[in-house]
Write a structure and sequence with these properties.
By secondary structure, the chain is an alpha+beta fold. Helix content is 34%, strand content 26%. It has helices spanning 70-82, 104-117, 130-141, 149-154, 187-192, 200-219, 222-228, 235-238, 245-254, 276-292; strands spanning 8-20, 29-45, 50-57, 87-94, 157-160, 165-168, 175-181, 259-262, 269-273, 297-303, 310-316. The strands form 2 sheets. Strands 1, 2, 3, 4, 5, 6 and 11 form a 7-stranded mixed β-sheet that branches. Strands 8-9-7-10 form a 4-stranded antiparallel β-sheet. A hairpin with a 4-residue loop joins strand 5 (157-160) and strand 6. Helix 1 runs parallel beside helix 2, helix 2 (104-117) runs antiparallel to helix 3 and helix 9 (245-254) runs antiparallel to helix 10 (276-292). It is globular and about 55 Å long. It starts with 7 loop residues before the first strand and ends with a strand.
């Protein structure tokens, strides 16, 4: 007689950092980054609640109240939607600083969801976790936008609409250089900078640039991306919030970037390159430009087609 599979008692997952917006795709386009991320350890408990036991790592002063925490809210949404009778206890291991423009809040809720999903009797497909991740992300940003959580769930470059995730193919050789200056730029402050009227021509130009960028990715045509990866809508309003931004961007362009802009809400700055060697050289030059503006920084070089969130460990009932 076949034995039934042992029930998972706890699981740990890692969700990568990300570049939100990718300049031309405000709130709908993002890609994951190898080399940084948040971990979440989730334990199944009998109480019908979500409890945050601890927060460790580079950020520790986050709410322990689940309803005010991105990861906690995501798990609450999962429990409610599935009508679960059991609860979850969560420990967050933060590897991404908040207010960095690297998807720190999104990474926490995606890691928690992937870990909790492994504890279900019938785990859901990654795409099915999207709505719950949006609920968590809304706690931090005030809106349900998926440009960070989408690529974390699927990996690589992802077009994230309200209800759908579409993975966009990107050549393996293409790399991203991201430089994170040692300053905090809160997402809500960065979004406030976008208030005010826009010209119709700006929307037309941005739509054209997004289209060229997506077409270039699908065709593996760097020339199309070079023509399209230019944010004319959001970057001009947020650039003044980032000391030395113009020189940092120019440093990327001087090293043959296909395009460069603000990662997410900032203050991190990214550039896309056809080869890893170009990205590595550009990252050093971009960091030097931030240093000229009086800011130390960290650099990260990753394939544009970065990894998806994944399980690290699962503990099963003895």
């Amino acid at each position: 007689m076949a034995r039934s599979p042992q029930r998972a008692l706890s699981a740990q997952a890692l969700a990568p950092a990300s570049v939100g917006n990718v300049g031309v795709g405000f709130d709908v386009l993002g890609h994951s980054l190898a080399g940084a991320g948040d971990r979440a350890t989730v334990r199944r408990i009998e109480e019908p609640v979500v409890r945050i036991a601890a927060i460790e790592g580079v950020v520790v002063d986050l709410p322990l109240d689940a309803a005010q925490n991105t990861a906690g809210m995501a798990l609450m949404a999962l429990r409610k939607a599935l009508g679960l009778r059991h609860g979850f206890e969560l420990v967050l291991h933060k590897g991404i600083a908040l207010g960095s423009g690297m998807g720190g809040s999104a990474s926490s809720c995606v890691a928690a969801l992937v870990a909790a999903n492994a504890l279900l009797e019938r785990p859901l497909p990654m795409e099915a976790l999207y709505g719950f991740a949006l609920e968590g992300e809304a706690v931090a940003s005030g809106g349900r936008h998926g440009d960070n959580v989408g690529p974390m769930l699927l990996g690589g470059l992802v077009l994230a609409t309200r209800d759908r995730l579409v993975r966009v193919p990107v050549p393996e050789a293409w790399h991203c250089a991201l430089v994170h200056p040692h300053m905090v730029l809160e997402t809500r402050k960065a979004r406030a900078a976008l208030a005010g009227a826009y010209q119709l021509g700006e929307f037309v130009a941005q739509s054209a640039n997004l289209s060229l960028t997506l077409a270039g990715c699908w065709q593996g045509d760097a020339a199309l991306v070079r023509e399209g990866l230019n944010d004319v809508l959001v970057e001009p309003r947020r650039a003044p919030l980032i000391p030395g931004f113009a020189r940092v961007k120019q440093a990327a362009m001087d090293h043959r970037a296909m395009g460069a802009s603000i990662s997410g809400a900032g203050p991190s700055v990214f550039g896309w390159f056809e080869r890893r060697e170009e990205a590595q050289a550009a990252a050093a030059a971009m960091a030097a430009a931030f240093a000229e503006a009086g800011l130390d920084s960290d650099t990260l070089v990753s394939p544009v087609a970065g990894p998806a969130a994944a399980l690290i460990d699962v503990e099963r009932k003895a």
